Amino acid sequence: MEEIDVAVLGAGISGLQAARLLRDRFSVRILEARDRVGGRLLNHTFANGDTVDIGGQWIGPGQDRMYRLVEELGAATWPLYDRGDNLLVLDGRSRRYRGTIPRINPLALADLGLAMHRFEKMARGLDPARPWAHRRAAAWDAVTLRSWIDSNCRTRLARQLFAIAVGAVFAAEPDDLSLLHALFYARSGDSLERLLAVTGGAQQDRIHGGTAGLCERMAAQLGDCVQLGSPAKKVKATADGRLRVDYRGGALLCERLIVAIPPNQALRIQFEPELPAWRDQLMQRMPAGSCIKCIARYERPFWRDEQLSGQVTSPAGPVRVSFDNSERGRESGLLMGFLEGDVARHYSGVAPDERRQAVLDCFARFFGERARHPLEYVDKDWSSDPWTRGCYAAFLGPGTWTSYGERLREPNGRIHWAGTESASQWYGYMEGALESAERAAREVQQQLERAGALHV
Length: 456
Description:
This protein is of the alpha/beta class and about 450 residues long. It folds into three domains: about 1-40 and about 210-285 and about 395-450, FAD/NAD(P)-binding domain (3-Layer(bba) Sandwich), CATH 3.50.50; about 75-80 and about 200-205 and about 290-385, Alpha-Beta Complex (Polyamine Oxidase, Chain A, domain 2); about 105-195, Guanine Nucleotide Dissociation Inhibitor, domain 1, CATH 1.10.405. About 35% of the residues lie in helices and about 20% in strands. The chain has 15 helices and 19 strands. Strands 1, 2, 9, 10, 11, 12, 13 and 19 form an eight-stranded mixed β-sheet that branches. A hairpin with a 5-residue loop joins β3 and β4. Belongs to the flavin monoamine oxidase family.
């Protein structure tokens, strides 16, 4: 049986980074369930060679770790197309606007603006490392975001647009989230406005070769310490205090274990002795969002001829937001749309052809009949992915932060927790995944050096 210092579960960007931070000082092994690295980051290549992210893809200002990683790995970024007019498609009519907030009737606009201002002011008062410590945390954690929206938006249109923003950021419904979690999430990424924005916001830049390409470069540096097709099945404490990790096809012994997989996947692993009841209860209360990412390829980005950016907001759905996802330097035009929350849950159970038609019908409503006839189409239902079962990230419902959140990042003996769901900065983003990897690696290094298990 292989004996190592550190085992890492999950070869997503967080697990790979944790291993990179530890590999020069300790023996490390990554166990990945899939036959690929990247986790929730995944590339798709169209027939003409265009590469597109069908998982996480964007980085923006404030995500300094990600920009450093891109530079370190010799990759490059380019801005998402953000020129021309955006569209609000409402009651069968298309209205052009610029910026993040659609141009709507003055009453609804003032209503939405005031609600956004209140939300941002509340979020600014939170410490994202300790959201449960705010003096109003218990009150905010006791209600859903939907309750808050209904109380703070007087017009139906403002409520609709706020809900679309929630879907775009969380891939969930306002009913799913506690108000405290929504405030924390926004604060962890600076502000809700930044999370929604393109230029100057979280959707500003893309990475040449795709984000999964970064993971492939990281894995190449790690070499044979990355083991694919090896889902962990059981983690057992041995008599000498080490951990035995049984996985498909083998087992290993390690001094420390970093779990860098989504909470719903960690629940599938048998622990002996069992994890503390609070940890199990916490992970049960962290369901993943629901998202289907859809991309259509056309001969060229014809919507630009009409000075349109490709960005659309549409309460009618099922595609409620879209973007021009064309690859820089390529001729093809790529339209990308999201199915999120309840819509994603519905279309997850629909035949692929029917789902494709529903998406293209939306694109045609946004950009005309040409959008109904792409050269190629691809979508990715992350809720049906067996090793993910949801995207973008886990969320916390009412009562969870104040009951369990203080111990979210706490190690359980020799078991440490990474992944974007344990981040205090940019929770739910690749930046958060890297931040959590740094923390977990630091915890492990301190403990191993204290124990004298140093392998140079």
